[in-house]
Structure formats: structure tokens, C-alpha cells
Design a protein that fits this description.
By secondary structure, the chain is α/β, with parallel strands linked by helices. The chain is elongated and about 120 Å long. The two termini are 41 Å apart.
């Protein structure tokens, strides 16, 4: 193997972390090809270019425009599709309306969103273009709807949230009086105090006295059918109809039989003089639906929107319990209700939404109690209350039935219900379509892969539309670090309750540290982790012990795939990265299916041939998909007792309502506002009203970027007392560009555990949110973020802080001591504290009576400053990454307390996959303008960093066929065995010839100390020639102490071999400094 191959081999070994690795020629050739190089140094090379994809090909999925496609496909025949509830409501609204008025609520996936882009682009069943109008919710809403109805025979539909309905109530009464045949579809959706999504029907209940017909549905299919019924009732009875449903079903895809336009037209022709008669003509036996045992003694009663599939399953698996679902709430039919109750019933338990305070006055309870009393029935009526009922299981219902027999009110949130142990759920399988299969996907919002799970569910379903199928999405839009999405898919079953999945895809590896991802894994499940890892050893430092141990216990079939590399090489847009996940799923789980055929029907792109692109991607996925064997040591790992959540919180992103006012205070002490974190979340929810933007550290004045750690490798032995480590950050999604010699500013965080300990001791709630001025704007962050990312609470305080503490100290002795320290008399004592690295935290502990407020701490404690590190890579060689060389700084002060460098500690402990805020600081460390000019570099320890980048830059120039001048490196450290940083790389570059000369000074490898200036004096003639006769450039990087000795070595060469006097030599060096030919970067 020749020189370039030797270099490539060295680079590969350094990445794989071992000296005894044997690499064959094929591996080396592949690396050479990926770098645009030729492994044979004797071959002629051409210019090597690194292509950075700025935008890339963005594949447009037909699955993202389901409503539009449904309309186009369903004109003539019925279709079976996997859809969520908004899809079917929007489809029916389009088909049966001339105008659709949309009143968005708080959900980012609000009802009507799928129609807004298609105003007058879609036809209804009459062949007319449908007008889609977006409205603002305010008092007196519906005036536009009333005006449209008065100006012609118009079929109008209103799509609204339950929050919007409150503002419509006054006009709703008017529309009832005018007998306006308008249909309202209302998504019952709200949030609790923690911003978690829930079904919310209070506004619908408030509309019960308006005179409008109130219909409800409990599933996606029933919503489709009830939406048709709502239009028929509005036409036949000439009355407004409100069809309401569970708005959280927008995150649940279910199998739906979609009526064609032709069939919808026939269904509109059906007659009927009452709500029950019209319901019966459309497949609903009555205004009430019954589920469960025909011999039930306890019958639950709830609005259909609360009768979730999980509640129905729980009822059907509980002997002696039934469920009566109220489909038509208004007009209320007493006789129909009593006839729907099974004869064996002895007690009715009315499920009312609430917090357990006012259940006796619940509207549904009053209707049921009235029907029982005036119907001469002897049924006992009990009310039970909770914010929702989807959590109830058979075990809960058994306790509920028993409690209801002796109590008139049951609080479903009390401890007795919370402590119920749940049994293993049953597994439902659809006959004739094979066994049930379940998969789960974990994605972070900014990765562009969050839609992969729902796409896969639909793609799989389309392969066999008759099979059962379901898909559930949970999205936490307020997770620190970006929204996270969990998608669970089930095939050949309508049941997600088994909680055991056969396949798990994790696109962002950092999530394994936040969630118990394997809690839902079945024995022997396949797990795909996205990243560049090829072996278990590569994952050793990436995965937590608990995850590795659990994989061995479940006998996980582990795979890895570098999706980022595939996306970059194919020139795909980042937002199309989900296609790689979809291909990987099909290749791993449907080997008999051609993934290109499956995906080609779903994607379109005008720039390229989709089939060719998908074939290219499929080939790349097939070749890079790596099966990783679990390591035997993982079976005996010790784990901590931390309990991670199995699922994200369901806190979907919200859209802003119109704010009535924003309180602004003028008082000089109102600069800081502390509240619960919900207020900041509210500002994020209502961005337009509060003029809120999401910015990366707006308090910093430079351009900042978010990069992802891909490599954190220690270079020195673990037994060595100095930890020097190599870092690589993936910059592909950040747009970060850097020049040779630049420094990377790292915005490090304080240690999380120490921050939490301090906040607990100081009595601050880490979840409280602080709003502070940022320029002319206001910025919000939690107290934990403030002390971990902004305030240097573990740094050295200035006299200003001592002065501030003296003003708030309540103890006279402490006050006097603080005043002494900042006085002229206390100068020496203050200096000793500075030298001993006393911190802000230390002072607060030492003077406990001085308790500054949070606002005062923010004013007195200095901000964490970015630490700048010379970049150790050339972007010409590493187009989508930036490398650093760092030494961990730690010491013990005179009091015996361990101290750490704030940023090096942060970086040393950083896990692969972590995101880091960075900035770029330009430097004078630049190569000469001509490649032929000599470069002389002198580096000590981590001062090697910029010179590694220099060598890479010259290497790429040489490979491009350019004439490269001499490159000389002097490197110094303690000894070769411990601190020969990048030693194998340097030897390979030297063998290649790009590094023409090396002077290595390992000071402790022999009796006499040898430093770089000694090696330079040995080469005095060469250095004099390069600097004087060949216009060479000299660089020194490292600590300040060798600067005079290095200069003396240069002067020695100039005077000995350059025929100039010492004074002239010193003047010449100063001239070179001015011309940036003699450059020092020392610290």
C-alpha cells in the first residue's frame, strides 16, 4: 500500500479506536473514493471537491395531501383508507358544502387545515367549486355565515374547535330561530394545566339549550358516517346541527370506509321527520349505542365523544358492565334512552368530565336522572367524574361498579383507582390476515423524520386495504431541545393496548437517555438506531447501561443505519429524510416486497425521476444497513435506579388565539418576571399575539449554530492523569461554515447535578420561567436553563458581587467581613480568594444571611462566556463536520475542593448525539496565499489542533494536483507513549510526503529535558532558508511560556545561516509579525 493508502489506513484505525485492526484493500479503496482520492499515490489525481447540499431534492408525498387525494379518488367509487378524524370531516364537508368556514382552535393540526390550501380547487358532489374561508374567532362569530346563508341557497359548513364555540353561542340562537340548515363540526379538544391534550366538551354542553341538534361520534368511522347524517338532518329538519367529536383523535389513524361522491348523493336523498328516524336510515339503530354484556347490572352512560375504543374494550371485557353511548344529545329522547338500557340493569353510572367538584350538577346526569324519574323507572343513578375516561380498564370498572352500589358519587381520580394494578392486555388479531404486527418510531421534530411512522402505516395498509390497522401519534411540542414524536403502528389488529412492538426505529439516538424506549419492545424485537456505528464497541459509549442491559434481556435484533450520510450523498432535502426510514422499515420487515414499487406510488418530484431516485436510495440503505451483535459484557452491566418515561407527554404544538391585551409594567424593578413555565409555553403557543419567535440564544450577539456531537474519543490512555480528547460535531443541519484557522466558540453548560443541588438549597423552583429583556425584546427560559446555560454561578466573582452581597447581608458580622474584603485593607485577602478560585456559590454558602433575589443574582452573576478552541479540521476534507482537540482542566484548591474547567468538563462528559450551541471566531492563523510557500508550525499539546487542519488542507491541495511547498511540524509534549496526539495520522502524512519534516520533542522520555526550541535549533539552517529565501510562514500555538525560547531559536538560525546580526533578526521577526508571516496563538 502506498502513501495515500497508508494515510487512509491510519485515519480508519483512529476512527475505529484500535491499533491491531486489519483493514483490507477494499475498505481503503472505499474510503478513498468517498474522499475523492486515489489510494495509489502514483496515480494521476484530479481536483477533489466536497459538495455541500444546501437545499436538495425534496420529495413531495401524496400522503401529506390526503383530503385532496380522497376527493380526487372518491368521485366514483368507495375507498378504504387509514385516516384520522380531521381527514374524514374535511372530506365530507368538502363533498356536501358550497362554503366551508374554518375557525381554528389552539391545536396546530386544527380542523380544516387540510382544506385551506385548496380554496375553490375542489368540487362538491354537485360539481361546484367549494369556497373555503378562514375566520377569526371573536365575540359575535358567525355573522359571515349568517350573511352567506341569507344571500342564496347555500350549503354551509362550519369547522370549529370547542373553544371557538363559546363565541358562537349568541349567533347560534339566532340561526336556530331562522331555521338555518348549517352544519357545525366541532373538535372537542383542550389542554390541562400541564398543557397535556385532552378531550374537552364543556362548550358543547353549554350549547345544549340553543335549540340546535347535537350529534356525537366516538370513532373515525362513526365520525365519517355521522357527518353525513348531520347534513341530512340539517336539510330535512331545517335546523342547525352540531356534530361534535373527540378532537384528540387527530393523532389516531384508523381504517375507514370512505363513501364515494356517487353514494353520498344517494344518501342525501333519504327522508325522515325526526332525528331518530334519520339516524335509523343511516345505520344507527337509535340515538344511543349500547356496548357490553346484555345481562349487565351496571350500565355506564356517557357522551359518544367520550366513548373511546379503549373504554369500549374495557367494558366488553368486564362481566356485568355495559356502556350506553349518547349519539344524539339534543333533542333528548327520554323513551329512546330508557328503551336502550338493558332490562337487567340495576344502576346507571353517568360519566361526567370534570375534576370531581361539581358532578351532581352535570348536564348529562340531570338528563339521565330526569328520564329515570319521569319514566317511572327504579334504576339507581350515580355519577362518576374524571377529566377523561380513556384510562379506565376492566380492573377499574369492576371497582367502579362495586363503589357505585353504595355511593352516589365516585371520584375516578382518588387513590383507590390510582393504585389499581393493571393486568396484561389481550391481543386482538384479525382473522385471515396473519398475525398482528406492531412497530414504533421515535423522532425529533427538526430531523425531518416525524412523519415516517404515519407514512409507513399508510403504505403498509395500502398493500392490503382490507386488513385491520391503526396508528397512534404522541407529540410533545414543548420538550427541551425540540419536539419529540412517538408513533405506534399496528397491522392486522385494531388494538394498540398490547404495548409490545416488534420493531422500533430511533432516528435521534439522544432519546434513549430521556425515554424508556425498550419498555414497549417485544422479545426478539428489531431495533434500528440511526448513526454511523458499525460494531457494538462503537456503541459502548453512546448507549446508557440500562439500554444495553435491557437489549440483552429482550434478545434485541439490533441494526444501525447512517441516514444522515445517505441523505447527503443522495442530495435529498433534510425534510425528506423520512424516506430513508420508510425504506429501512420495508427492507427489514417486508423482504418479499419491492420497496421502490411501494414508495413510487406515494412520492412525486418534478426535478428527478422518482423511481431512479428511490432505487438509488434503496440501494444505499440496503448496503449501509448494519446488523450489530450485542456484546457479552452488556449482560452483566450495573444500572442506576432512574425511571424514565415510556412515552412523551401529549403536548402538541398549539396555534395562537387573539390576545385581548398584554400587560406591560413600567416600574424599574419589573425587568424580571418569574412565573410557572406554562406562561412561557403560552407565549410560544400564541406566537402571533405575543410576537414570539424561537431563537437560538438571542442574548448572544454573534451568529450561533446548533451542531450535533458525533464522536467523543479520548486520545490519552485512561490511566494517564491528563484527559486529552478528540471531538467531532456534525454540522450538516446547521449551515455552519468555517475557514482554516478559525476557532469554535462553545457555549458550555454548568453541571446539571450541581445546578439542581444549588437550586434546591437556594429554594428556587427549577421549572419556574424567567422573562427578561433581550435588547428591545423579552426572552423566556426556565430557572434551570438560566443557571445551567447562562449564569456562571460556579465561576469566580468580581468585587461587584461582594459589594452586592454586603448590601443584602442581614447579619452584621457577615456584612462587615464582606465590606472588609472589598476595602483597601482586605486587598490581600481578596487576592487569595481569587487565586483559590472561590466561586459565587461558595460565597452564598459562606455568607448565608446574604440572600440576593433571583433578579439580583441575574444582575450580579456574570454570564457564562463561550470558550474558544482552535478548529482541528479542514472543511475541505470534512465538509459536514468540525473537529476539536481539548484537554480536560481540573485541579484541587488549597481547601482540598475539586475544581473543574467549566467548558472542558461539559465537553468531556458530552454524549454522542448531544446538541451544542457554537459560534465561529476568526483568527489570523491562515496558510500562506501560495501553496508553494513553506509552512513551519510549532505546537505544544493541544496547540496541535490548528496544525492538524493545516496539514489536511495541504493534503487536499496536493491530491488536487497542486504544487505544495514544504510543511514542517515541531510538536512537543511530555512523552510519546501518552501524549503523541494524532501520532498515527502524522506518521502517515509524513510517509505520504505532505508533511515534509517533523521535529518531535517529548520532554520526559530521556534524562535531559528536550523541548521544541531544541529541535528547531537542530534545523536552524533549514528554517533560515525557508523563512528568508522561500518566503515561508512561521506559526506557534500553545502555552505562552516557550515564546521567548522559540523566538531565540529562530533568531539563532537567522544569525547563524542568514548572515544577519541579532538586532536585525529581531527587527525582521517584528516585521514578519506585522505582515502575518510570524503568527503566535498562545494562551
Amino acid at each position: 500500500m502506498l502513501a495515500s493508502a497508508a494515510l487512509i489506513t491510519s485515519l480508519l484505525k483512529s476512527q475505529l479506536g484500535g491499533k491491531d485492526i486489519v483493514l483490507d484493500d477494499v475498505a481503503v479503496e472505499k474510503v478513498a473514493a468517498s474522499l475523492g482520492l486515489d489510494s495509489d499515490a502514483s496515480s494521476t489525481t484530479t481536483a477533489s471537491q466536497t459538495t455541500v447540499v444546501d437545499a436538495g431534492v425534496r420529495l413531495r408525498s401524496k400522503l401529506d395531501n390526503l383530503v385532496y387525494n380522497l376527493v380526487q379518488e372518491s368521485m366514483t367509487e368507495d375507498k378504504t383508507r387509514l385516516l384520522h378524524i380531521n381527514h374524514v370531516i374535511e372530506y365530507i364537508s368538502c363533498a356536501l358544502s358550497d362554503m366551508v368556514f374554518i375557525y381554528p382552535g389552539t391545536s396546530s393540526t386544527h380542523l380544516g387545515q387540510g382544506l385551506l390550501p385548496w380554496d375553490e380547487s375542489l368540487d362538491n358532489i354537485s360539481g361546484k367549486s367549494v369556497k373555503v374561508v378562514r375566520m377569526d374567532t371573536r365575540d359575535g362569530a358567525l355573522h359571515a355565515v349568517q350573511g352567506a346563508l341569507e344571500h342564496g341557497d347555500i350549503q354551509a359548513t362550519v369547522l370549529a374547535s370547542s373553544q371557538s364555540l363559546y363565541s358562537m353561542l349568541p349567533m347560534l340562537h339566532l340561526l336556530v330561530g331562522q331555521q338555518a340548515p348549517v352544519v357545525f363540526h366541532v373538535a372537542g379538544h383542550g389542554i390541562n394545566g400541564a398543557l397535556v391534550s385532552r378531550t374537552e366538551l364543556d362548550a358543547v354542553v353549554a350549547a345544549r339549550q340553543s335549540g340546535a341538534v347535537l350529534l356525537s361520534s366516538s370513532s373515525v368511522q362513526e365520525a365519517h358516517d355521522m357527518a353525513v347524517v348531520a347534513r341530512v338532518i340539517a336539510q330535512q329538519l331545517q335546523a342547525p346541527v352540531i356534530h361534535y367529536f373527540d378532537g384528540t383523535l387527530v393523532n389516531r389513524f384508523e381504517k375507514v370506509n370512505v363513501c364515494s361522491y356517487k353514494k353520498l348523493a344517494l344518501r342525501l336523498q333519504t327522508g325522515g321527520s325526526s332525528v331518530p328516524s334519520i339516524l335509523s336510515q343511516h345505520g344507527f339503530s337509535s340515538s344511543f349505542g349500547y356496548f357490553g354484556s346484555q345481562n349487565a347490572e351496571t350500565v355506564l352512560v356517557t357522551l359518544a365523544a367520550h366513548a373511546s375504543s379503549s373504554l369500549v374494550r374495557a367494558v366488553e371485557s368486564t362481566p356485568g358492565v355495559g356502556l350506553l353511548s349518547v349519539r344524539a344529545y339534543r333533542p333528548w329522547q327520554d323513551d329512546d334512552f330508557l328503551h336502550s338500557v338493558v332490562p337487567s340493569a340495576r344502576q346507571l353510572v353517568v360519566l361526567e368530565q370534570g375534576d370531581g367538584l361539581y358532578a351532581f350538577n352535570g348536564a348529562l346526569y340531570l338528563d339521565v336522572a330526569s328520564a329515570v324519574r319521569f319514566g317511572s323507572s327504579h334504576l339507581r343513578v350515580v355519577t362518576a367524574q374524571a377529566p377523561g375516561f380513556g384510562h379506565l380498564t376492566s380492573a377499574h370498572l369492576q371497582v367502579l361498579a362495586k363503589r357505585a352500589s353504595s355511593a352516589s358519587f365516585v371520584d375516578l381520580l382518588d387513590d383507590k383507582f390510582e393504585e389499581i394494578e393493571l393486568g396484561e392486555p389481550s391481543v386482538e388479531t384479525q382473522a385471515g390476515h396473519g398475525s398482528a404486527f406492531r412497530a414504533a418510531y421515535w423522532d425529533v421534530e427538526q430531523d425531518g423524520t416525524a412523519v415516517a411512522g404515519s407514512h409507513i402505516a399508510q403504505l403498509v395498509h395500502e398493500q392490503d386495504p382490507e386488513q385491520a390497522g391503526i396508528c397512534q401519534i404522541v407529540h410533545d411540542g414543548y420538550r427541551v431541545g425540540g419536539g419529540v414524536t412517538h408513533t405506534q403502528i399496528a397491522c392486522n389488529t385494531n388494538d394498540l393496548a398490547s404495548n409490545k412492538v416488534n420493531y422500533i426505529g430511533v432516528h435521534n439516538i439522544g432519546l434513549v437517555n430521556e425515554y424508556d424506549i425498550l419498555a414497549e419492545a417485544a422479545q426478539g424485537a428489531k431495533v434500528l438506531l440511526h448513526g454511523p456505528w458499525q460494531h457494538g464497541d462503537d456503541l459502548e459509549s453512546v448507549l446508557p447501561n440500562s439500554f444495553k442491559l435491557r437489549m440483552t434481556q429482550l434478545d434485541i435484533d439490533l441494526y444501525t443505519l447512517d441516514a444522515t450520510q445517505i441523505v447527503q450523498e443522495a442530495g435529498l432535502h433534510q425534510q425528506s429524510a423520512h424516506v430513508v426510514d420508510e425504506l429501512a422499515f420495508l427492507l427489514l420487515n417486508s423482504p418479499k416486497v419491492d420497496p421502490v414499487d411501494v414508495l413510487s406510488a406515494a412520492y412525486q418530484d418534478g426535478k428527478r425521476d422518482v423511481n431512479a431516485l428511490l432505487a438509488e436510495l434503496a440501494g444505499a440503505v440496503q448496503s449501509k444497513l448494519t446488523r450489530v451483535a450485542l456484546l457479552p459484557p452488556w449482560t452483566i452491566l450495573e444500572t442506576d435506579d432512574a425511571v424514565l418515561p415510556a412515552l412523551p407527554l401529549d403536548r402538541g404544538d398549539l396555534t395562537p388565539p387573539v390576545a385581548d391585551d398584554i400587560e406591560v409594567q413600567d416600574d424599574k424593578h419589573s425587568q424580571l418576571n418569574v412565573a410557572t413555565w406554562h406562561k412561557a409555553a403560552w407565549q410560544m403557543m400564541f406566537k402571533e399575539a405575543y410576537h414570539t419567535d424561537s431563537l437560538l440564544r438571542p442574548d448572544l450577539h454573534e451568529n450561533n449554530y446548533l451542531v450535533t456531537l458525533s464522536v467523543n474519543r479520548r486520545l490519552t490512555p485512561a490511566t494517564y492523569d491528563r484527559n486529552v480528547f478528540h471531538l467531532e460535531f456534525d454540522t450538516s443541519a446547521s449551515g455552519l461554515k468555517y475557514e482554516l484557522g478559525d476557532a469554535l466558540g462553545v457555549h458550555g453548560h454548568n453541571d446539571s447535578d450541581e445546578v439542581k443541588q444549588f437550586l434546591q438549597w437556594y429554594g428556587l423552583d427549577e421549572t419556574d420561567v424567567v422573562t427578561v429583556p433581550v435588547g428591545v425584546h423579552a426572552g423566556s427560559r426556565t430557572v434551570f436553563q438560566l443557571f445551567s446555560q447562562v449564569l456562571d454561578i460556579f465561576g469566580r466573582p468580581s468585587k461587584k458581587f461582594y459589594e452586592g452581597l454586603a448590601t443584602v447581608a442581614a447579619d452584621d458580622k457577615e456584612k462587615q467581613q464582606l465590606e472588609f474584603l472589598i476595602s483597601a485593607e482586605g486587598k490581600d485577602a481578596f487576592k487569595a480568594r481569587v487565586e483559590d478560585t472561590v466561586t459565587y456559590e461558595d460565597l452564598l454558602h459562606e455568607f448565608p444571611s446574604a440572600r440576593p433575589s433571583l433578579e439580583q443574582l441575574m444582575a450580579w452573576v456574570s454570564p457564562i462566556k463561550p470558550r474558544h478552541y482552535s478548529i482541528a479540521s479542514s472543511q475541505k476534507m470534512h465538509g459536514n463536520s468540525v473537529h476539536l482537540l481539548v484537554v480536560a482542566v481540573d485541579w484541587v484548591n488549597r481547601a482540598g475542593k475539586p475544581r473543574f474547567g467549566q467548558c472542558t468538563r461539559y465537553l468531556a462528559n458530552l454524549a454522542v448525539g448531544s446538541q451544542v450551541t457554537v459560534s465561529i471566531k476568526p483568527s489570523v492563523m491562515k496558510l500562506p496565499p501560495l501553496d508553494s510557500q513553506p509552512v513551519i508550525m510549532a505546537g505544544l499539546g493541544t496547540g496541535m489542533a490548528p496544525f492538524r487542519a493545516f496539514i489536511q488542507e495541504r493534503y487536499m491541495a496536493k491530491q488536487a494536483g497542486k504544487q505544495v511547498g514544504p510543511v514542517v511540524l515541531y510538536f512537543g509534549s511530555r512523552n510519546r507513549s501518552n501524549e503523541y496526539l494524532y501520532g498515527e495520522e502524522l506518521e502517515a502524512y509524513h510517509q505520504d510526503g505532505v508533511l515534509s519534516h517533523m521535529g518531535l520533542a517529548f520532554s520526559r522520555d530521556q534524562k535531559q529535558k528536550v523541548y521544541i526550541q531544541h529541535k528547531m535549533k537542530e534545523d536552524a539552517a533549514m528554517l533560515s532558508d525557508y523563512l528568508i529565501n522561500n518566503n515561508g510562514h512561521f506559526y506557534l500555538c500553545g502555552p505562552t511560556w516557550p515564546v521567548p525560547d522559540v523566538k531565540d531559536a529562530v533568531v539563532h538560525g537567522l544569525t547563524t545561516f542568514g548572515s544577519i546580526q541579532e538586532a536585525e533578526a529581531n527587527a525582521l521577526i517584528e516585521e514578519w509579525k506585522e505582515k502575518e508571516r510570524y503568527i503566535l496563538e498562545v494562551y
